[in-house]
Amino acid sequence: MFKKAIFILVAGVFLFGCAKKQVLKSDRDSMVPPGQEDVDETSIRYDDWTKISELKTVNFDYDSSVLTDSARAVLKKNAEYLKSNPDITVLVAGHCDERGTIEYNLALGQRRAAAVRRYYGNLGVKLGNIGTISYGEEDPVDPASNETAWSKNRRAETKVRKK
Amino acid sequence: MDVYLSLSAHGQRTDFAFAGFIPENESIEEAKFCRMTGAVLRADLLFSRYFNLVEGGPFFTGKDEELLKWADLGVDILIAGWVSVSGENLKVKAAMMDVGSRRHIWQRTYKGTVHEYRRLAHEINDDIVLHFTGERGIAHTKIVFTNNQTGKKELYVMDYDGQNVRRLTSDNSINILPEWSPDGEEILYTTYKHGNPDLYALKLSNNSKRAVSVVQGLNAAGSYSPDGRMIALTISAGKNPNLYLITPRGEALRKLTRGTSIETSPSFAPNGREIVFISDKPGYPQPYIMNLDGTNIRRLYTEGFSDSPAWSPRGDMIVFSMRLGRENYDLYIYNLERDRISRLTQDEKNNENPSWSPDGRFIAFTSTRSGRSEIYVIAADGSGQKKVADIPGASFTPSWSP
User: Which residue of B has its CA nearest to A23?
Assistant: First the structure.
């Protein structure tokens, strides 16, 4: 009982002492979790995003968000294009193969997208122009259940806004 | 009380019989509903696994000689009932007789429309189970899940026995990871409808939807606390996917994990004081338990890739899926008191995303054993695996209602 009282007290301090607390009013509002800065990514909502031939897709190893040497080579070329077109905003979409659970793959896809965004930043692309999204295992390019399909589905795509 | 002890403490089953329903006014319509309602009740009683159902005796119209015939078959408790239909109205009077003493031990009348005959049968079963175990049966419960038969992923709900499959959303988008609220009124889920994986809640009574957590990035794997006052979920917010606690209105309460690893799949202990979740801190996904304030994080050691943990309603077990080496995913139960892991499924392709029935005696999960992902139910002791329903397309992530 005493422990419960302490918990309620602590929760109360949290609720009333947190200046950043926000109540969601619409889709466009965003909650800032405690201890987090605002997301400095470009907003990705309410737009259609599409692939273009200048920006290539990169693939990942199983259960990994580490950029391979061949992925880095591809991303360097993508980054050159983005730097020579500094007005373009892009969405990096992280994807997974079907193995593992839906929840875990959502997080893994997010890490893949974040790894690509970070690398673009290291190469001099303006980070504020890059948004990320994870589709987890929800959007495979090849729906088959074999190694060939899985290796194609573990990927990050760099997309631009549809005009 | 004696019967309750014999049913659950010793695992012995009393010999029951269901004599069937008889029409009160002897109309053809009533005879039809006697058959249909009786068939549902019989299936519910069998599913519950509390009762040995003896067959072969006569209908019970109130005569002692009928009870004597059931007594000869070794029956202790006889369930019987009368059905009356008047226009659209259906009335079922259910009764239980102690065969030895020829006494009524329970009787209740159930009313609804003729279209609700399944619900009436479920309620009769759940009251009978309540009478003998002290806990309501689960025949009234439902299972929410996602399915891709439209080419997109939408939310669906069905009765616990696979009947009344109904699509809940028509968003033409990706809706995933549905989870019941503890009061049974809302479904939490993640939707891509607005261009970002956002956490929404769908109210079942009027199909209205509200935004719960819409930070850019992941708002996923939302799971209610047992008292319904908090939601644990994974938020990435431009950083690593970590676990947070928010209120059901989306107000931030606290950040629970701060790792650079993946933290997801939270499930509250029934006492509301601890959360089991998944972290890939060791380099692959493993279950961990932490206190509600994010402290006292400890690993549940498993030998493989482990995921989608669900804490049992009684608090003593955690069911999860695990892949050993290059095997498929199978369901396992972690017994917290004995610190022991036991296996539930084997050699049936991938078995994932377990969800407990509210009485903690069954688990709904997905299996790819038929060649596509479908929803199955298994008893918590690993017996009696059964596909819940034949539904076109692939079905995912069942969540069992309270």
Answer: B251
Q: Does A62 contact B at CB distance below 8 Å?
A: no
Q: What is the CATH number of domain B2-133?
A: 3.40.50.10070
A139–B contact, CB cutoff 8 A: yes
DSSP string of A90-108? EEEEEE--SSS-HHHHHHH
A116 touches B: beta carbon within 8 Å: no
> What ranges do the domains of chain B cover?
2-133, 142-400
Q: Is A35 on the interface with B (CB under 8 A)?
A: yes
Residue A57: both structure tokens together: 């897709």
Q: B142-400 has which CATH code?
A: 2.120.10.30
Residues A27, B176: C-beta atoms closer than 8 Å: no
Q: What are phi and psi of B245, to 5 degrees?
A: -110, 130
User: Fold identical between B2-133 and B142-400?
Assistant: no
Return the residue of A nearest to B173 by Cα: A138
Domain boundaries along the sequence of chain A: 49-161
| Per-residue pLDDT, A39 | 57
Pairing status of strand B329-335 against strand B317-323: antiparallel
Taking only the tens place, the pLDDT of each residue in B257-283 is 998 899 999 999 999 999 999 999 999
pTM (2 d.p.) = 0.90
Q: How many CB pairs under 8 A join A and B?
A: 156
Which chain A residues touch B213 with a CB distance below 8 Å?
A: 24, 31
pLDDT in tens, B182-236: 999 999 999 999 999 999 999 999 999 999 999 999 999 999 999 999 999 999 9
* Class of the CATH-defined domain A49-161: alpha beta
Tokens linked to B327: 């095997």
Pairwise CB contact (< 8 Å): A138 & B176: yes
Q: What ipTM was assigned to the predicted interfaces of this complex?
A: 0.90
Q: Do B218 and A134 touch (CB under 8 A)?
A: yes
Query: In this complex, do B321 and A101 lie within 8 Å of one another by their Cβ atoms?
Result: yes
